[in-house]
Specification:
It is built from two helices and two strands, in the order ββαα. By secondary structure, it is an alpha+beta fold. The chain has a two-stranded antiparallel sheet.
């Protein structure tokens, strides 16, 4: 049986629909410095190259919980 690493400290980031995703450290080995993951770049590239159908603007009205009007405007502009 393989050794299972014990969970370590965790961090939580709060952000809204209009906020840019953070760049976060990813610890790989306790003796090494963490690598940096740019979540915004990863999300943007995955979204651009994905084969998933993009949501239509009309579907935004059905989101639950409902978004604030400024958040809806930002999503409409993005889509």
């Amino acid at each position: 049986m393989a050794n299972v690493a014990q969970p370590g400290p965790a961090s939580v980031w709060e952000f809204g629909v209009q906020d840019q995703l953070p760049t976060i450290p990813i610890p790989l080995n306790p003796l090494d410095r963490p690598v940096v993951l740019d979540l915004q770049r990863a999300f943007t590239e995955l979204y651009a190259y994905s084969t998933y159908p993009k949501r239509r603007v009309e579907e935004l009205e059905m989101l639950r919980p409902a978004l604030a009007e400024d958040e809806l405007d930002a999503l409409r502009a993005f889509l």
